[in-house]
C-alpha cells in the first residue's frame, strides 16, 4: 500500500519539486566535495548550509552534520539520513570511498545533480493531470446529462411528434442500455483514470525521475531493459579506475551495499564472473548492459589509459538517448490524448445541441 501511495504522488512531485530537489542535492554534494578536497571542516560547512535552507531539507542537512560530527563516514552518514540523496548516488559515493576517490565521486554526483536541475522540465505529468481532471468532470457531467436531461429531450420531441437526430438517439440508447448499471459506469471511469495515472508514474520512475524516497525497481528495470541500469554502474567503475583500484572493487561494493536486493544479486553474478577471470566488458555485454562494439571500445580505451572517459561517455550516451526517446514519445502522446478527449467532448456536445437546432427550425 505504501508503494502505491508513493507512486500516486510521483507525477505531482515531479511537476513541482524535481528541479528544487536536484538543486539542493547539487549544492550539498559540491559542499562535501570541496570540503573533502581542501580538508575543510565539513560539519561547520553543513551547519552554515542548513541555516540557509528551510523546511524538511534543512533538518536533513543538520542531521547529516550531527552524524559526521559523531564520527560517521560520509557514505554511512548519507545512508543514515532518509531521502537525502538517490540510492544510485549514495552507492557511487561508497564506491569512491572504498577506492580512495571520494572527492571524485562527490564531484561526479554533484555534476549529475546539477544536470538534472538544468534539464528540461517533464511536461507529461501536467498534461496527464489536466486530462485526468477533464475526463473526470466529463464523466460526471455526462452521467448527469444522460440520466436527467436526455429523457426530458425525448419527452419534448415526442410531444411535438418529432424524431430526435440519429446521434442523439444513439446517446439515448447508450443511457437506456446502462439502466441500473450507471453506478458501475461511474466507478469504472475513475478506475480507468487511476490506471492511466499509475502508468505514467511507472514510466517516470523507470526513467529515474522519482524522488529518493521512491526507490526505483531496479530488478524490474533489469528485466525490461538492462541498458537503463547501466549508467550508474559505468560511472561507479570510472570512479574506481580513477582511484587506481581494480574493477572488482566497484562491483563488489555495489553487490554488497546497493539498497535494491535484486540489483545486488544481479551484480553479484557479474562480480563472480569477473573474479573468475572473465573479461568485465564481455560480462556486461552478455548481460545486455553494453551493446555490440562497446566492449572493444572500452578495451581500447583501457589500453591507452582513457578508460574513465570512455565509461562516462557511454553512460552519458545512454542517458541522453533515454531522455530523447522519452521526450519524442511525449510529443506524440500528448497531442493524441488531447485530440481524443476533445473528440469525445465534441461528440457529446454535438449530440446535445442537434435536438435544439431541429426544434428551433421546427418552431421558426
Describe the structure.
This protein has 364 residues and is an all-alpha fold. Among the domains are: 117 residues, Up-down Bundle (Receptor-associated Protein); 118 residues, no CATH class. It is 80% helix and 0% strand. Helix 5 runs parallel beside helix 11 and helix 11 packs across helix 12. The model has no long low-confidence stretch (mean pLDDT 79).
Structural class determined from secondary elements: mainly alpha
What level of helicity do the residues show?
A: over 70%
Strand fraction:
under 5%
Radius of gyration: 28 Å
Distance between the termini: 61 Å
Give the SSE string.
HHHHHHHHHHHHHHHH
- Main β sheet profile: none
Average pLDDT taken over every residue:
79
Secondary structure tally: strands: 0
Helix count?
A: 16
Q: What shape does the CA trace take?
A: elongated
Q: List the uncertain runs.
A: none
Features of the shown structure:
mainly alpha; single chain; 364 residues; Receptor-associated Protein
Concise structural overview:
The protein is mainly α and 364 residues long. The protein has helices at residues 2-38, 42-51, 56-69, 74-80, 87-98, 102-118, 124-159, 166-178, 182-206, 218-224, 230-242, 247-257, 261-275, 280-287, 294-304, 307-363. It starts with a helix and ends with a helix.
SSE map:
Layout: H1 2-38, H2 42-51, H3 56-69, H4 74-80, H5 87-98, H6 102-118, H7 124-159, H8 166-178, H9 182-206, H10 218-224, H11 230-242, H12 247-257, H13 261-275, H14 280-287, H15 294-304, H16 307-363
Helix pairs in contact: 1-2, 1-6, 1-7, 1-9, 2-3, 4-5, 5-6, 5-11, 5-12, 7-8, 7-9, 7-16, 8-16, 11-12, 11-16, 12-13, 14-15, 15-16
Amino acid at each position: 500500500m505504501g508503494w502505491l501511495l508513493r507512486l500516486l504522488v510521483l507525477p505531482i512531485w515531479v511537476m513541482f519539486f524535481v528541479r528544487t530537489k536536484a538543486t539542493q542535492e547539487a549544492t550539498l554534494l559540491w559542499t562535501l566535495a570541496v570540503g573533502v578536497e581542501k580538508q575543510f571542516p565539513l560539519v561547520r560547512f553543513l551547519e552554515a548550509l542548513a541555516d540557509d535552507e528551510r523546511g524538511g531539507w534543512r533538518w536533513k542537512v543538520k542531521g547529516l552534520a550531527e552524524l559526521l560530527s559523531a564520527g560517521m563516514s560520509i557514505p554511512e552518514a548519507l545512508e543514515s539520513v532518509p531521502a537525502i540523496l538517490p540510492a544510485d548516488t549514495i552507492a557511487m559515493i561508497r564506491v569512491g570511498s572504498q577506492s580512495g576517490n571520494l572527492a571524485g565521486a562527490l564531484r561526479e554526483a554533484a555534476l549529475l545533480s546539477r544536470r538534472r536541475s538544468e534539464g528540461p522540465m517533464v511536461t507529461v505529468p501536467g498534461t496527464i493531470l489536466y486530462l485526468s481532471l477533464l475526463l473526470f468532470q466529463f464523466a460526471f457531467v455526462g452521467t448527469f446529462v444522460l440520466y436527467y436531461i436526455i429523457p426530458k429531450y425525448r419527452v419534448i420531441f415526442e410531444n411535438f411528434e418529432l424524431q430526435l437526430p440519429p446521434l442523439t438517439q444513439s446517446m439515448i440508447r447508450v443511457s437506456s442500455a446502462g439502466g441500473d448499471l450507471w453506478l458501475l459506469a461511474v466507478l469504472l471511469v475513475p478506475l480507468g483514470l487511476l490506471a492511466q495515472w499509475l502508468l505514467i508514474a511507472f514510466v517516470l520512475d523507470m526513467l529515474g525521475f522519482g524522488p529518493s524516497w521512491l526507490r526505483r525497481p531496479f530488478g524490474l528495470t533489469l528485466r525490461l531493459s538492462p541498458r537503463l541500469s547501466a549508467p550508474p554502474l559505468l560511472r561507479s567503475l570510472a570512479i574506481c579506475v580513477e582511484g587506481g583500484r581494480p574493477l572488482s572493487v566497484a562491483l563488489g561494493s555495489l553487490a554488497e551495499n546497493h539498497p535494491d536486493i535484486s540489483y545486488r544479486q544481479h551484480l553479484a553474478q557479474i562480480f563472480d564472473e569477473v573474479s573468475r577471470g572473465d573479461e568485465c566488458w564481455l560480462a556486461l555485454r552478455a548481460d545486455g548492459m553494453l551493446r555490440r562494439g562497446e566492449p572493444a571500445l572500452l578495451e581500447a580505451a583501457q589500453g591507452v589509459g582513457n578508460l574513465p572517459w570512455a565509461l562516462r561517455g557511454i553512460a552519458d550516451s545512454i542517458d541522453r538517448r533515454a531522455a530523447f526517446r522519452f521526450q519524442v514519445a511525449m510529443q506524440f502522446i500528448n497531442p493524441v490524448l488531447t485530440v481524443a478527449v476533445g473528440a469525445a467532448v465534441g461528440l457529446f456536445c454535438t449530440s446535445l445541441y442537434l435536438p435544439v437546432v431541429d426544434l428551433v427550425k421546427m418552431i421558426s
